[in-house]
Amino acid sequence: MSLTHDSPVDDRAPSAGSSGVGPAFELKAAAFTLPVIRLLRLDMDAVEAELTPKVQQAPGFFEHTPVVIELSALPSVEEDVGFPQLVGLLRGLGMIPVGVRGGGSAQHEAAKAMELAILADSVKPYQAARETEVKVDELPVTGQTDEPPVGIETGSHLIDRPVRSGQRVYAAGGDLTVLAPVNSGAELMADGNIHVYAPMRGRAMAGLHGDTNARIFCADLQAELVSIAGHYRVSDKIPATLKGRRIQVFLDHQVLRIEPL
Amino acid sequence: MARTIVITSGKGGVGKTTTAAAMAMGLAQRGHRTAVIDFDVGLRNLDLVMGCERRVVYDFANVINGEANLNQALIRDKRCENLFILPASQTRDKEALTLEGVGQVLEELGKTYEYIVCDSPAGIEHGALMAMYYADDALLVTNPEVSSVRDSDRMLGILSSKSRRALQGEEPIREFLLLTRYSPERVARGEMLGLEDVQEILALYMLGVIPESKSVLNASNAGNPVILDQESDAGIAYSDMVARYLGEERPMRFLDPERKGLFSRLFRG
């Protein structure tokens, strides 16, 4: 996905120039939100049967999408996961399996043999709060919760209950419309546009998959962060004159613009 | 069928235990058979606030581990015969509470009690999740300041995703807001968030506003739930809260700054 939190600058300004004497690369840390396939039991035929229709619903979402295989929900850390078959299945559906999370050492060895990364399992205490949010992002293979849906739905998405601090809502492949307040610490994400018809105090990221034509519309802008296709601006950099107003956010030649409506 | 009410906040020190004690006492005084459970393993306080700390023999963890039965662990309140207290364990670690064990205790209590009040520990960790998992109603105790409001907001998100009602797709938990330590003078001076500000952010039904009051600390020190002190503003406000919870309409009180005129000072004596 295209959102990175790595850059300290507001908008991704075009780089200074191509004089070619500076370093050839920079090493940075970036946080990515990836779909997680959380295996609940070791039945690859069932996984295939359940996953295929989901992919067909939203082919664009899965095309070349890196995914993580989560093993922690499996009943045993000993059993052979059958990575060759699973990886083949995911690749066949267009996804790029990049790593595994959880599981036992034997499973890790098997994953390494398939060139899958072993992703950190434990979270540090200060990350614990973040972790609960990330969990919401897992593909809802089963057990939909009452949390504002984070489904992989092709269509657009409507939320009419307040989005609370720590909650994340993602409308994959469509627009997200919110009729209730979005509170500080909440995150809205959409591959398309985001509309908020109540105070918007959280974060909004439109065009999550890089759609530079996506826009954000707010009836009452008090956001902590707005972002379109990875170009973002934090509250500090949003002019005070725009706060509390009806605005739209869009990209104009790679420059993020916030204008009253 | 008992109703399970969780008193929660996310943030510490906002008045959860005081509120749990008041809620439980208030319901019991109105004739409802009520049990109040302290979920704060290792940092128990409810027994002190309820004034029964010298009568604790067995605790919640003992019951869950099968070392004592429920009736041995429940302490009957000396002031109100409808009220029973189940203290937390002070010596175990918080893992002593299991979802299954808590469920069994609540189910057994549910057979004979009308209301079960759960006093949640601060935070969003294990103990708080245990306290809220089985809740039917949630009372969010919030102070009129930004960090407390945000933590309550976070807690509301967790209630709507991690509770049993949410996970099993049942009717959502009824959520109520209680504003505590409210000081109208400081709100008027702009030092505290006002009632409307908090309500605008959290968008919840306001069950009451408890004014900042010395009587709360005095009552806690004496082991008397402040709701028993009907001379104090806080005690009266807690009575209103219980009444509203039970469906009565009561106007909000203690929202306006006290007039500090010379006469009022003289005559209030």
Structural description of this entry:
- The complex is a heterodimer of chains A (261) and B (269).
- Chain A is 18% helix and 26% strand.
- Chain A is an alpha/beta fold.
- In chain A, the strands form three sheets. Chain A has a six-stranded mixed sheet, with no helix packed on it.
- Chain B has 13 helices and eight strands.
- Chain B has helices at 16-29, 46-50, 60-64, 70-73, 99-112, 126-133, 146-162, 164-167, 184-188, 195-202, 214-222, 233-245, 262-268; strands at 3-8, 34-38, 75-76, 83-86, 115-119, 137-142, 174-182, 205-211.
- Chain B is globular, with a radius of gyration of 18 Å.
- Classes of the chains: A alpha/beta (261), B alpha/beta (269).
- Chain A binds chain B through residues 128-129, 132, 136, 143-147, 161-167, 180-181, 183-186, 199, 201, and chain B through 124-125, 150-151, 153-154, 156-158, 160-162, 165-167, 169, 172, 200-203.
Summary tags:
heterodimer, A: 261 residues, 6-stranded mixed β-sheet, 5-stranded mixed β-sheet, 5 helices, disordered N terminus, B: 269 residues, alpha/beta, 8 strands, 16% strand
